Amino acid sequence: MEQSSTGSTPAIQDKRLKLIRRISRLLDEQFSVGGFKFGIDPLLNLIPVAGDVGGYLMSIGLIITMAQYGASGKVVAKMVLNATLDALVGAIPVLGWIFDFAYKANTRNVKLLTAHYTEGRHKGGAGPVIFTVLIVTGVILILVLFIAFKFLQWMMQWGDKAIGIKI
């Protein structure tokens, strides 16, 4: 069980963190193969577009929940950066799939929130940042969809050229 750096009660006992920790674990560390932990997020990302978008929306949902629990704007911005990096790099075929298994954005975000609660770091509410988070999420979502569409379009053109079909 994790201990806070102040040596007080275990960080996992904070009721505000329990649900967030469970969802984050499901997304990033639920399964173990040969000592390597992974969750459903990298598995979802094997499904083109839908997996990337679904994983990103779940991460943003967790971030909004953390912001409602009083995470500061600075922490929320770091969390959005983690989730966005995971979504953008994760959208790249093959390289992104490998990255998704290793990066674990949701676990990183829970560590940020744990530091906020157990160590008193990152004080302050995140109310003003929630709107920005939603705007950034929308822009990133559109960008991920655009990249996925262009990739699929390229794959179809490449496939047509490979088999000699003209459209």
UniProtKB/TrEMBL annotation:
Annotated protein name in UniProt: DUF4112 domain-containing protein
Keywords, comma-separated and alphabetical: Membrane, Transmembrane, Transmembrane helix
Species annotation: Niabella ginsenosidivorans
Keyword Transmembrane helix: yes
Keyword Ligase recorded: no
Membrane-spanning residues: 46-67, 79-99, 129-152
